[in-house]
## 1
Amino acid sequence: MQKIENAEYFHARQACYLCLQPHDCVDTEVQIEGEGVLALCRNCIGTLAETAGFELRDQQDTIDRLREELRLALERETIAKDEAGEMAKAYMDARRIEKARRENSKVKA
C-alpha cells in the first residue's frame, strides 16, 4: 500500500471510502468496479486495526532506542574495521621487514 496525495484516480468521491473525509488517504490498490481505487484514511485504518484486535500505540520511544543501538553498532563496526586495517598493515610491515632481513643475511653470507 502506498500513501497517496492529490491522486487523480483514487475513490470516486476523492475521499476515504469509509468516513468520506478527504485527508491522509492510503491507496490499497484494490479496484472497486464503478467506484475506483479503494482508499482509506489513517483514522479508519487505525479503527479497523483496533477492531481486529491489534494494539495501536506510539512506537517513537522504541524507534529512537533502536536507532541509537544501530548507530552504536555501526560505530563499533567502523572502529573494528579500522583496528583490523591497522593490524593488517602492521602485519604486512612486519613481513616486509622480515623479508628484508632474510635478504640482507643472504647477501652477507
## 2
Amino acid sequence: MTDALSEIARDQERDGNFGIYILNVFKFLNNSTTENYLSLNDSAKNVDSVRGGYWNPGYKTKLENGLVKFLIKLENRNQKAWDFILKYTKDPSSGIILELAEQLKLSRTKYLEFNFPTWID
C-alpha cells in the first residue's frame, strides 16, 4: 500500500502524459507521418505506464493496444471517438495548450462537423 501523496502524484503524471497524448493525436491527424505516429505511440505508452492513483486505485489505461483502431475511428468521423478526444480539450489549463490550440485549428478545417472547443478561436 502506498501513501495518498504518491497516489495523487501518479494521477498528476497520468494527466500530464494524457495531455501530451491528445496533442500527438491531433499532430498525427493533421500530418500522418511515421515520425508523428511513433511520437503518438510513445505518448500512449507513457500514459499506459502509470498505474493506479488516488482517484482511481488500480486503474490502468490501454491506449497503445487500441491506438490504430482509435485513429481509424477518428479518420472515419466516428462521433463517439471524437466525443472522447474532444471532452479532454475543453479546459485550457494545460501547459501544452497553445500548441494544442494550433493543432485543433488545423483539425477543425478537416473535421468541420464536430463541435470544437470555443477557446481555440
